[in-house]
Write a structure and sequence with these properties.
alpha/beta; eight-stranded mixed β-barrel; 12 helices; 9 strands; binds ligand C2E; binds calcium ion
Length: about 250
């Protein structure tokens, strides 16, 4: 929590592009932690640590607050883009979560449709055990917030969770996007997954697009949106502003 006050924790944003129009449709908020002695600490280390030490709530609230302020600003300027945040199941176990999220939206004058929440299969798995998680998801969905299933395909029961949770978008994990270039079988699998998702009216996003070759293939396979270093690495808010002003 001290790190939050000291400004060592900050948020970067990575745009997601519409495949057909090439325009930004949303941007994902990713937390960053810079420690003076240890240097840059990746969220993969920070998040589990924050969960264990009980300050995941503070991190989550900080990111939500920053991200919804940015989204509100763009909405006011007429750009109806959504900001996407990542969550951990731990945060959703609190029965106060949905009220808290809606309060922040109101405080920051951010319309609910300008917020997307990304959940993982691990989250979905825990939702089957914890009624509080499902209730929070339902209340937020009712308010107009959309949910996306992150790292799609890495778990063992992706499609089961699409039935049990109100998901409107899936983000195909980068291992598939990278794997399908060299492996014809992976390509076939991805092609089928995209079709299946479309038949369920889901938006399909490609994560971790790094090369032109990958972009061409995801275009051929019918993905709706894409995100990755090929377009941009995650950037600070001022750089995001520049990207959004360009279009
Ligand atoms: P994620 O949600 O799957 O986020 C995508 C990760 O892939 C990000 O790593 C991003 O920087 C990276 N990435 C983007 N484009 C490319 C690409 O073209 N190639 C490759 N190889 N990687 C790319 P990052 O920022 O290190 O975040 C790692 C994970 O930490 C995230 O994975 C997410 O699960 C978690 N995370 C990040 N921020 C938050 C947060 O605020 N709250 C929670 N609960 N988790 C977070
Ligand atoms: Ca994510
Ligand atoms: Ca992901």
């Amino acid at each position: 929590p001290q790190a939050l006050k000291d400004g060592k924790i900050y948020v970067v944003y990575q745009p997601q592009y519409d495949i057909l129009s090439g325009k930004i449709t949303s941007y994902e908020a990713l937390v960053r932690w810079h420690d003076e002695e240890l240097g840059q600490i990746s969220p993969e280390e920070l998040i589990p640590l924050a969960e264990d030490c009980g300050f995941i709530q503070s991190v989550g609230r900080f990111v939500l607050d920053e991200a919804t302020k940015v989204a509100a600003k763009w909405h006011k300027e007429g750009k109806k883009l959504a900001v996407s945040i990542n969550t951990s199941a731990r945060e959703f176990m609190s029965s106060e979560l949905s009220k808290y999220v809606l309060d922040i939206l109101e405080e920051n004058k951010c319309p609910p449709e300008a917020l997307q929440i990304e959940v993982t299969e691990r989250f979905a798995f825990q939702a089957e055990e914890e009624q509080a998680i499902v209730q929070n998801v339902q209340q937020l969905t009712k308010a107009g917030i959309h949910f996306a299933l992150d790292d799609f395909g890495t778990g063992f029961a992706s499609f089961r969770y699409l039935q049990s949770l109100p998901i409107s978008k899936v983000k195909m994990d980068k291992s598939y996007i990278q794997g399908m270039i060299t492996q014809p079988k992976t390509r076939k699998l991805v092609e089928g997954l995209v079709q299946l998702c479309h038949s369920l009216d889901l938006i399909v996003t490609a994560e971790g697009v790094e090369t032109e070759e990958q972009l061409e293939l995801i275009q051929t396979l019918g993905f709706d949106t894409a995100q990755g270093y090929y377009f941009n690495a995650p950037v600070r808010e001022d750089e995001l502003t520049a990207l959004l002003e360009e279009q």
